[in-house]
Amino acid sequence: MSATMDTESTYSGYSHYSGHSKKAHRQGRDRHKSPRSKDGSRSEKSVTIQTPPAEPLLGNDASRAEEGQDDNWGETTTAITGTSEHSISQEDIARISKDLEDSVGLDCKRYLGLTVAAVLGLLVFLTPIAFILLPQILWRDDLEPCGTVCEGLFISVAFKLLILLIGTWALFFRQPKADLPRVFVFRALLLVLIFLFVFSYWLFYGVRILDSKDTNYQGIVQYAVSLVDALLFIHYLAIVLLELRQLQPMFTVKVVRSTDGESRYYSLGHLSIQRAALVVLENYYRDFTVYNPALLTASKSRAAKHMAGLKVYNVDGNNASGQSRAMIAAAARRRDSSHNELYYEEADHERRVKKRRARLVVAVEEAFTHIKRLQAEEQQKAPGEMMDPREAAQAIFPSMARALQKYLRTTRQQQYHSMESILQHLSFCITNNMTPKAFLERYLNPGPTLQYDRDRWFSKQWTLVSEEAVTSGLQDGVVFVLKCLDFSLVVNVKKIPFIKLSEEFIDPKSHKFALRLQSETSV
Asked: Largest CB tally within 10 Å, which of 44, 237, 364, 515?
């Protein structure tokens, strides 16, 4: 009953704060309207994309000062609304629309390639069967009788076709992971090789068997068996080219994120640039911490504050060189003291983070103490007091909401965690009997991109920029860039050096030692 009352008060406080935040946002928009109207060109070339106010969690804009926040807010609400703004130009909007149009072409190209591969595969599997059945249909009465050896070849063809079908399904019929800008060269070469191979067999079959109506049916069946054997060897070649060739590491790539400089190293084999870019992106979503543009606003605001503090007054309007010297001197004095400001700002931020972290850990541990898993016999004794994991999560969430929202706001993670996602994670932890430390692991340290919902990702569509052809193989010194809307990944390729090892034999009998005693040494 108390949990129900807390939930009702939570929703009432949530709606009140939502209306207040919308009013404040409207006032801020009116206050900034006049400067934009003065610069007509800027208002024409910029647009602001805002997220819906009900989506983000608990948090204001990350650039808001900590001192201006209401410390008593969490007592009446568990989540607040906010707007996450990201300004881009009309050129970026045009580029996005162009990328969407290009994606339609990529889909057509992908389906066309799948259609060609499916038709060719169907032709390959039907060709040996057609070689065996056509003589039976066209000139059955003139054929020589098929003996035991010929009937055994039927079983051989059937099992070889079954093995080829399973191998082809396992190697080629997979869910595509990405749309590459160019075709896969080795796969295209294999398709061309298979087409030429099957066409050659059909040409020989039509000239030497169909035209002459060969009566040696056992020879015709052996001809079909040789085709199936050759197709199996081509499948082995496909495994070597598509799977085994890239397994041996030959290159080391360094991936650097352009905004914050976070980097990782990976080992790759013989791959083309576009397939190496695909491997880099797969590892990026798993290894790199999620991109958080709010962490970059502090340095930008600090630099803007320093530049805004420099003012030079021209009294007589003629001393231009004196103005420049005064500006340089003021900038030098400001630069000499800026490192102290940075030091104290970072120390104060670390102190606040540790303080909020300690409060969050205590609040979560106290909340988890109110949850007790009921055994089978206890469930029969008190059926009215039982709750499912979702209800239990909703019951204990208000007691930790204030500490959690303050910590996420201090560490600028509030845009990645909605209230619904936190409740789902809390319900998951309660269901699997996880500890408070396991629940907090997601929030205390930023995780990889795959940990968060797709609508929280800042990188979904990428552009590969390379001076070399994307179908060419990796080489030492090759550099390519993977760009998305907000940042880019710079990839530098280095070849693994050739290592020469030498051997030195040590005789086990040579391990002999002598004890040296001195007069002052006591043994």
From this structure: 364
